[in-house]
Design brief:
The complex is a heterodimer of chains A (302) and B (333). Chain A has 2 domains: 201 residues, no CATH class; 86 residues. Chain A is built from 9 helices and 8 strands. In chain A, strand 7 and strand 8 form a beta hairpin. By secondary structure, chain B is α/β, with parallel strands linked by helices. Chain B folds into 2 domains: 182 residues, no CATH class; 71 residues, no CATH class. In chain B, the strands form 2 sheets. In chain B, strands 2, 4, 5, 6, 7 and 8 form a 6-stranded mixed beta sheet that branches. A two-stranded antiparallel ribbon of chain B has the order 1-3. Classes of the chains: A alpha/beta (302), B alpha/beta (333). Chains A and B meet through helix 5 and helix 7 of A and helix 2, helix 5, helix 6, strand 4 and helix 9 of B.
């Protein structure tokens, strides 16, 4: 594990030289240590599956849990919310900006748009078209597009503005010309269905995936400032990537970028990191199961 | 409909870009030195915070208020914010400025602004406040907003995507392990991330009257951007939508050091308040508007009343903190 403090007084592992995109790209592409042994990942997966199955077995029948960055964070910081009724997801400019922003940056990286603002404009225009076509049975539009399509002009503008700001931060964080193989921006998340249980799925999200040697490395963009438990934040996508892809294709590094504060953290993935991430996931699943049981008990009592 | 793709506005942009003026070289150790200075300065006051205290968040507003009167900021933090037409106007103008810069098109000021606020869940209650206004006052407010927006569309070009414009750009600088957070949101920032030379311009948009503390706000944002990105912005500017005035300033070390000292003074005072210290009362021209006026003897002597005025009340001249800052400068140069 490598701690990187972007504070200029004692940078460890990452140069603070400007432009920062060059320093960050250097750090991202630096050779990794030994790749994770396939046997070690398999053993971790088997142990984790056994433990999680036992924990999830207590979950009321028919209930399912999905642990992602958000639910894991809720379990760590606000366990009381795990026993509250689930708030219905409400799309907003803030909740859509990442989805639109990564699509825009992907267009820029592929040379289809000249800058993040143009990319966002193109993505939104395509989505509006997809919604129209989708109603006639064509390709499935992005999840946010039906909501976006029904907004009046002022609402659409603020969605666009949020996405442009988000996309610009990601686009300027890396030196895209330095990658020998084109990075994958956005694309699909990693999913892992817990073997032996139909009630638990883990989800890992990375905003950018690049190859370092033969192994993938992830870039994850965070909101606000880097939290004290950043290892858990970055460890989850590493763990789910390793579980979903197996040892040979497990991520070797996860880089967290918090553009609002300019902070950067590097997590080189080894067996200890995966072990810590697994422990954190078990704890999160346990917290959610307890919360669901509490809700179920309260429902029965009433 | 107002559209702006085809009309170049050279003067304003030339001033923001500083055409003809070389971009300053970035001093490699500057941001680190400023951060160390803040960390060292805050360490003693942070040590006095209770272990379970929430992070002390330092915004431009709280900084201005606490430097004028600690009792004033303590009272403000303890009461729910009160909406008024000035705040509603500012929020709507900000939303429309953002729309103009992002899309280059404003179809209808009122409906666009309210739709923008609605899309974000009307989190500050501005939409609800406007809807609840009596019809004449609502019409007056919306006409006022439309005038401000006409000024924006007349003077502002729509930035090229190549300038990397970002609106409502949030900045946070956690200090002392996150126990103190300097925070702000720039209305507009543009320019490539800094390399050898400073390259970012930060713009604040104001719909109210020009006030002295606006420079302090801008300097605070210059400090935040420097600490966040490792390099100062090359230009900072305040744009007044009422008059079309643009105040532009280059950012030198003197500006940053001044902003740092001010931020350190304010953050230290806020930490002491968070640690339970009694706020000191400093009579100032803002006393007449202070929510704590009914229980503040020095404030009552200054204001000549124990009944606070309502901010944004069109019937009362709002001197704002400008005069307060002038007085402070005279007393404590």
């Amino acid at each position: 594990m490598q701690l990187v403090d972007e504070g200029p007084t004692a940078p460890r592992g990452l140069s603070t030289a400007l432009p920062r995109s060059a320093s960050l790209t250097d750090a991202l592409l630096a050779p990794c240590g030994h790749p994770l042994a396939a046997d070690a990942v398999r053993a971790l997966r088997d142990d984790l599956a056994r433990t999680l199955c036992a924990v999830v077995a207590e979950l009321p029948a028919g209930e399912r849990l999905r642990i992602d960055a958000f639910t894991a964070r809720v379990a760590r910081h606000h366990p009381e919310r795990c026993s509250a009724g689930a708030d219905p997801f409400v799309p907003s400019p803030a909740t859509c900006r990442r989805a639109i922003g990564v699509a825009a940056v992907a267009r820029c990286v592929r040379g289809l748009s000249c800058a993040p603002a143009s990319g966002v404009f193109d993505v939104l225009a395509a989505a509006a078209e997809d919604v129209a076509v989708g109603m006639e049975g064509g390709a499935r539009p992005p999840w946010w597009s039906p909501w976006y399509a029904q907004l009046p002009a002022g609402g659409r503008a603020v969605v666009s503005a949020e996405a442009v700001t988000w996309a610009t931060h990601l686009y300027t964080a890396l030196d895209w010309g330095r990658f020998e193989r084109r990075p994958v921006v956005g694309a699909g998340d990693d999913w892992w269905d817990c073997p032996g249980s139909r009630q638990l799925t883990l989800k890992g999200r990375a905003d950018v995936r690049v190859l370092v040697g033969a192994s993938p490395a992830y870039v994850v963009v965070g909101n606000g400032s880097c939290p004290p438990d950043w290892q858990a934040e970055l460890g989850l996508p590493a763990l789910v990537g390793a579980l979903a892809r197996g040892g040979a294709s497990a991520p070797c590094r996860v880089v967290g970028v918090w553009p609002t504060s300019g902070q950067v953290r590097l997590l080189d993935v080894d067996a200890d990191v995966l072990e810590a991430a697994a422990t954190s996931v078990i704890s999160a699943v346990g917290t959610w199961v307890d919360g669901r049981l509490e809700v179920c008990g309260a429902r029965q009592a009433s | 409909m107002l559209t702006g793709r085809s009309t170049p506005r050279v003067p304003l942009i030339a001033r923001l870009r500083g055409d003809g003026v070389p971009r300053p070289l970035v001093s490699p150790g500057l941001a680190g030195g400023l951060r160390d200075w803040l960390e060292d300065g805050l360490a003693p006051v942070v040590a006095g915070l209770p272990p379970d205290a929430a992070a002390v968040r330092v915004r431009k507003e709280t900084l201005n208020q606490v430097l004028v009167c600690e009792a004033h900021v303590a009272a403000r933090l303890a009461t729910a914010p009160v909406m008024n037409t000035a705040i509603a106007r500012g929020t709507m103008v900000d939303a429309l400025f953002r729309q103009w810069v992002t899309t280059g098109s404003i179809a209808d000021c009122s409906s666009d602004a309210l739709a923008a606020l609605g899309a974000e869940g009307d989190r500050d209650g501005v939409g609800a406040f406007v809807a609840a206004l009596p019809e004449p006052r609502r019409r007056e407010l919306l006409e006022d907003v439309a005038e401000h927006v006409q000024d924006i569309t007349r003077n502002w070009p729509v930035p090229s995507p190549g300038w990397l414009p970002r609106t409502q750009d949030r900045m946070e600088v956690p200090l002392a392990g996150g126990r103190v957070v300097l925070t702000g949101t720039a209305d507009l920032a543009f320019g490539n991330p800094p390399g050898e030379h400073a390259s970012v311009c930060v713009v604040e948009v104001k719909s109210g009257a020009r006030r002295l503390e606006h420079r302090g706000d801008l300097h605070f944002y210059a400090l935040l951007e420097t600490l966040r990105s490792g390099a100062p912005p090359f230009r900072i500017a305040t744009y007044y939508t009422r008059t079309g005035e643009l105040d532009v300033e280059p950012v030198g070390e003197d500006v940053l050091v001044g902003a740092l000292k001010r931020a350190l003074d304010g953050a230290s005072a806020l930490c002491r308040l968070a640690a339970g210290a009694q706020p000191t009362r400093s009579a100032n021209p803002l006393c007449a508007w202070c929510v704590a006026l009914p229980g503040c003897a020095p404030g009552q002597r200054r204001a000549g009343t124990d009944t606070p005025r309502i901010p944004g009340d069109p019937d009362v001249e709002d001197r704002g903190t400008d005069a307060a800052m002038h007085e402070r400068t005279e007393v404590d140069p």
